[in-house]
Structure formats: C-alpha cells, structure tokens
Amino acid sequence: MRSRSPSLPSARPEAPISSASPSPGKPESDNVTSMEDRGILQDIGEEVICTLRAASYKLFRFHLHDWLALIALAVIYGILNSVINPFYRYVGSPIIQDYKYPLKPNTIPGLAVPVIAIGIPLVIFIIYFLYMKDITDLHHAILGLLFTVVISAVITEAIKNALGWPRPNFFWRCFPDGIERYNNDTFEVQCTGEQSVIKEGHKSFPSGHTSGSFAGLGFLSLYLAGKLQMFDRRGHVAKLIIVVLPLIGALLVGLSRVDDYWHHWNDVFGGAILGLTMAILCYHHFFPSVFSDKSTGPHSYLQIGNNFKLSCCSWVPRRRQHSDRPPAGNGRCILFFVFAGQEMVVQ
C-alpha cells in the first residue's frame, strides 16, 4: 500500500489561542480567520484605536495654511462689505425713471443665503460621512465649499463697489418721500434718504444672493455628480434629477431677486455665471472631474495609485472585503493596505 506523506507545517503564522469555541453554524475556516484577526488586534493593542479627532487634527494641520487663507478672505469680504463705500455712479433726472420700481422687502433675506449656500451642502456632506466614514472626503468637501462661497462673495462685493450700479428701486432709496431733488448744474440726484440705504442702492451688479447660491449649490451639484458617477453612460435619470435639484434651487433664488425689484435680469445672470465658475474651479481643485471614473474620492486618493487603497481600521466594514469604496481618513492608526489583491496589516 502507498504510504501517506507526512503533513507539512503551514506557512501561515499560527493564530493566538482563543478560549472562544467555534460557532456551530459557521465553517471552521471563517472561525480561524476571525481568531487570527482578533489575535492581530490584541497584539497591536492600543495602536488600533483610530479616532475621528486624530484624523481630523492631522488633516487640519496639513491644510492649516488653507484655513488661514480662508479666514483672510473672509476678513477681506467684511472690509469690502462694511468699510469701503461703493462708487456712486451718476444718476440724473433723464434716467431716474428707470429706477422707480417699488422698494419691496426681500423674499429671501440676506441671512438666509449662508444657510442655503453652506448649510444645505453641509448636511449632505455629513450624511455621506456618516454612511462612508470618510474623514478626508468630508474635510475636502467642507474646505472646497467654503472657499467657493467666500471667493465668490469677495469677487461679487469687489465688483459691486467698483461699478456702483443703481438698483431698480434706487429712486425710493434716494427720495423716500417721493419728492425729487437735483443739482441745478449737473442734474444729478440729491438724495435725502438714509446713507446706508443709499449705499446699498449702488450695489446692483452682480447679484450677491445669486452668486452665493450658485456657488454653494453648484458645488453641491458637482459633489453629487461625482459621488453618483452621473456620467457613467448607464442612463440613470434619477442621478440627473438629484444633481440638477440644487441648481434649480439656486435659480429660484436668483429669480426672486428680479421679482423683488432688487436686481436687473443681467445682475442675476452675471451672479449665476460668477458663482458657477467659482464652484467649478474650487471643486476641481479638490476632486477629480465628474466625467472621470475616479470621481468618487478627492485628488489625494489618486496620488496613492490606482491599485493601492487605504482605510482606517476602525472604519473598515465588519467583514473585511475588497471594495471599490474610496479610502477613509489617514489619521494615526493601523492601516489595511490592499495592493494587487494582497492584504496586510501595518502600523
């Protein structure tokens, strides 16, 4: 009879002895793998803890100069809006009739614009983060959104001050009592209204409500288009509807400015172009093109390589499986590296 050859020792490192008995309903291989994973984590000890705070702090330090630049831009906007007066463009008796539209209250108050442009996208970003646990994506989305809105606000306010274009309701800002007064020599208006109201009346072009709304909601549309991979050529209309909805909201904000007689139609058109341009530029500064097949994650993932993905151990699914999901945060933690189908654990 042919004798059996002796069994060779396994090349796999022995798993630490665990007191837990195999589960009766599961295959033995699954139980062995589970015990090996538990043994690895026990050997690692406290290093396996990867908190959101650690990952967030590392990202914040790496992008500290970006946050400082954002604060500087916000200060510049405050100066342009509150300190610097706009150019008081000539308004004479021959053209004052074009600015006699009624002075109505805002349908959408000015304080509602940050809620629309920043608050709504933030809610979407946080929901995506709670689902994917991707701190890097959340950080880049927030930073890109804030840069989009703040840069748009700075450019909008600078143009407003430089041009000093009168609003459609300028007449009632200048003459609240309805009595017209002009310079005898130049026929220029001599306003009797409040200085702050008159100052605001020379800030027609471009529309700040419109530029801010298209900046924030335009960034959100691009973000959704990238995450949903809208241009995957599969023809899913639902993706298109989701991506277009924020733009419709921004458009409604712009149309309300015309209906309230606070802006001319070209003010709204210019604000929309400005906001969308900033959204496109800032989005592609942090994320790949929405037409790319790698549009689901920030640019920082692509720097690692196409076949090289990492994710924080505390955010890996319960059963570690190969996935096309973008990597999560890169804080101080144990990282599961997946390279060419091989998996290993390193610190």
UniProtKB/TrEMBL annotation:
Localisation per UniProt entry: Membrane
Amino acid composition bias (Low complexity), ranges on this chain: 1-23
GO molecular function, a single term: phosphatidate phosphatase activity
Gene3D superfamilies according to UniProt: Phosphatidic acid phosphatase type 2/haloperoxidase
GO biological process, one term: phospholipid metabolic process
Domain Phosphatidic acid phosphatase type 2/haloperoxidase: residue ranges: 142-283
Transmembrane segments: 67-88, 108-131, 138-159, 237-256, 268-286
One Pfam family of this chain: PAP2
Domain of life (superkingdom): Eukaryota
Keywords noted in UniProt: Hydrolase, Membrane, Transmembrane, Transmembrane helix
Region (Disordered): 1-33
GO cellular component: membrane
Chief location category: membrane
Topology within the bilayer: Multi-pass membrane protein
UniProt family annotation: Belongs to the PA-phosphatase related phosphoesterase family.
The name this protein goes by in its record: Phosphatidic acid phosphatase type 2/haloperoxidase domain-containing protein
Organism of origin: Adiantum capillus-veneris (Maidenhair fern)
Taxonomic lineage: Eukaryota, Viridiplantae, Streptophyta, Embryophyta, Tracheophyta
